[in-house]
Predict the 3D structure of the following.
Amino acid sequence: MIISTKAIVLRKINYSDSSLIVDVFTELEGRKSFFIKGILGKKKTKLKNSYFQPLSQISIKYNKREKRKINFLIECKVHSYCQNSYLDYRKSSIILFLNEILNMCVIEEACNKEMFSFLENSLKWLDVNDEVSNFHMIFILKLLKQLGINPHLKSSNSKFLSFENGSFEVEKPSGLYAKGKSVKTIISLLGMKFDNCFLLKLSQEQKHEILKILLEYIEYHVQGFKQPKSLHILHQVFE
């Protein structure tokens, strides 16, 4: 069966000296892996390595084979050019950071058009807007909702984030939890739109603490999640 669908690049791995294995999140079939032979070799191929930058938005066509986990691309082209995201060092650091998170969290091998639409629209917003300092934190909170693990707000007076219960609590919960001003700030970020992300003024120390809490929360709920290696680059860029 020939499948044509939009996709977002999650990961690429060198295979031998000239080939790639690429993981993408497709609009129609969730996460898929593809073997791309000879793309890094000296001979010209119809597919370009530049198509598979982190979180690139592409359109692909492939022959679906039910019993194979790795498929072969028939066609690939760029669906949405987001050059600003790669040329702007602030945006590119956010892209690398979120790419690591998505690669570990978006593992569903089934159609999830709501998730795809969220990722597609978020990446387009990042590309065309300049005020992006808090974008990644709001993105993570929205991603948690898409994953079905977002913490629920029981009261605006909550002072604790219970990892075990997946909720903000007024009273100190049992098990692993976070507390302090950063929890109150995370509550302020809940439901905030990207267009308003710059309105919340935060110190570098606050941003670091908020990201620490959010990443620890994901690590608690997502099996195999590890701290992104690009986190230190993000901290340096937004100092």
In short: The beta strands are 2-15, 19-26, 30-36, 57-63, 70-80, 152-153, 160-162, 167-169, 177-179. The mean pLDDT is 93. DSSP finds seven helices and nine strands in the chain. The domain at 2-80 is CATH 2.40.50.140 (OB fold (Dihydrolipoamide Acetyltransferase, E2P)).
